[in-house]
Amino acid sequence: MEKTNSKIITVLLTRYYSTFSNFIYYVTGRGYTHASISLGNAEALSYSRIGVVFCLLRIPFKIRNRYFCSQFVAETLQQTESVKLSKKASLYLPNELPKVLECQHCLRGISFAS
């Protein structure tokens, strides 16, 4: 049997109810407000609210080891070299990730829980 070099990546998209998440919810057309992905050896990372503001303005912006949730997920997926993104990782909001992931031919399946 031939072994394949495959990876299993799980992306969790959720709706939070904090003040900042409510702002994202209403500004981005309602839906997901948070995206997360699991990594084994993550370095110390910080949340970047200013990154969200630049993303809403459609301005690519990155500070080393500072991410907002969907930026981190998009960049991690990009680094696996199995998911191709059409724009910089810092320009993705949580609501955009399901459409991006559905278009990838390398994925076996996507399930949505309501």
Strand content: 5-15%
Instruction: Give the termini separation.
Output: 38 Å
Task: Kindly state the percentage of residues in helix.
Answer: 25-40%
Number of helices: 4
Number of domains: 1
Strand tally is: 4
Return residue spans where pLDDT drops below 50 for at least 5 consecutive residues.
none
Integer average pLDDT: 79
Strand order of the largest sheet: 1-2
Structural class of the helix and strand makeup?
A: alpha+beta
Order of helices and strands: EHEEHEHH
Reported for the largest beta sheet, the result is: 2 strands, antiparallel
Q: Could you tell me the radius of gyration in angstroms?
A: 15 Å
Taken from the alpha-carbon principal axes, the silhouette is: globular
Description:
With 114 residues, the chain is of the alpha+beta class. It has one domain. Helices cover 30% and strands 11% of the residues. The protein contains 4 helices and 4 strands; from the N terminus they run E-H-E-E-H-E-H-H. It has helices at residues 19-27, 49-56, 69-79, 97-102, and strands spanning 11-14, 34-37, 46-47, 66-67. Strands 1-2 form a two-stranded antiparallel ribbon. Strand 3, helix 2 and strand 4 (66-67) form a beta-alpha-beta unit. It is globular, with a radius of gyration of 15 Å. It starts with 10 loop residues before the first strand and ends in a 12-residue tail after the last helix.
